[in-house]
Amino acid sequence: MNNDKNFTVMVVDDVQENIDILVTVIGIQYNVSTAMDGKSALAHIVKEPPDLILLDIVMPGMDGFEVCRQLKSQTETQDIPIIFLTAKTDGKSIVEGFQAGVVDYIGKPFNVTELLVRVKTQLELSHSRKEMKKINARLEHLTIHDDLTGLYNTRYLYDELYQLIERSKVENKSFALLFMDIDNFKHVVDTYGHLNGNRALREIAETIMESISKPCYGVAYGGDEFVIVLPEFNKDQAIKTTESIRSRMKQTLYLSGEGCNVKLSASFGIAAYPDDATEARALLKLADQLMFRIKESSKDAIGCLSKASGSDQPQPPSTLIN
Question: For residues 72 and 79, what is the distance between their CA atoms, to the nearest angstrom?
């Protein structure tokens, strides 16, 4: 656990003498904040959440049970450990306290050593839970994100794409996706090395994210290939967004931080639901094929099927923007 002085314990008691004693005892190891009634305690906790609360039960206005229940009902404060420090040590009060959400119960008068041990234990447990949450959040992030670029990964793409198709069917809405491949990226890697190649991919991902906004999202598809999903976009809107990405790329000097100042371009293929295809893999395949035709011909351009074709079979791109 970090330095104890990084932790704040809040004491809530309506008797000033009790507060003074607790501040003296606890203040040796921890930062201490105080309140003398439930209402002011809640206001202070919302503004400056402590790491642990020592809470009396019997107080004017709002008792400790209600303070605890209110704190546990709010997302911002529900994880703060609360210890009842009270003279109400009858069985009914103890049960009600645990039902309200306290983690421990200390009777008055208290033993200083016992109090400090219980406070330390709950702070350590709370700290461990917070660290575990961070680890779990990181693991959850990694399950759907590409670790190199920070964009979503293909696992997320396929899951979300199937759901997007179902929603679009029900709501009778269109959407588009574009397949993007960096032109001559092998030359960048061969010239500047793999580490700079990875840096360039991260910078390209930033270009993508700067060119779109939610609910649109980018996906690291593999190597130097990316997919961008555009919910509720028609083909014309998708072309406009793709041209924005293409234009921004051409205006950007990549690896400038490494002193390289590399200019890059990309080839794009666009597929739209439901005009071009109605299944996830068919949409991806078509966008990939259209992108490949662009890459094999002019590069640095956008390809898509004409609205009239109604085909998900590979055809010469009907839109070329050079």
Answer: 7
* CATH T-level fold of 154-304: Alpha-Beta Plaits (3.30.70)
CA atoms of 275 and 178, how far apart (whole Å)? 14
Angle between helices 280-296 and 154-171 (to 10 degrees): 120
- In the predicted model, is pLDDT for residue 209 greater than 70? yes
Tell me the chain's radius of gyration from C-alpha atoms: 30
Per DSSP, helices labelled H in 27-108 are: 38-47, 64-72, 91-100
Tokens for 220, please give them: 């690291």
Would 8-141 and 154-304 be classified into the same CATH topology? no
Phi, psi (degrees; rounded to nearest 5) at 88: -80, 90
Cα 62 vs. chain centroid, distance in angstroms? 37
DSSP string, 148-204: TT-SB-HHHHHHHHHHHHHHHHHHT--EEEEEEEETTHHHHHHHH-HHHHHHHHHHH
Question: 302-322 b/e with 16+ CB inside 10 Å = b?
Answer: bbbbeeeeeebeeeebebebe
Using 50, 70 and 90 to split pLDDT, how confident is the model at 221?
very high
What is the token pair recorded at 284?
């991806």
- Split at pLDDT 50, 70, 90, the class of 317 is very low
User: Which of the two residues, 88 and 156, has the higher pLDDT score?
Assistant: 156
Spell out the domain ranges in the chain: 8-141, 154-304
Burial classification of residue 150, based on how many CB atoms lie within 10 Å of its CB (0-12 exposed, 13-18 middle, 19 or more buried): middle
267 neighbors 183 (Cβ within 8 angstroms): yes
Task: Say how far apart CA 137 and CA 256 lie, in whole Å.
Answer: 33
8-141: CATH topology: Rossmann fold (3.40.50)
Torsion angle (degrees, nearest 10) of CA 199, 205, 211, 215: -160
Q: pTM for the full model?
A: 0.69
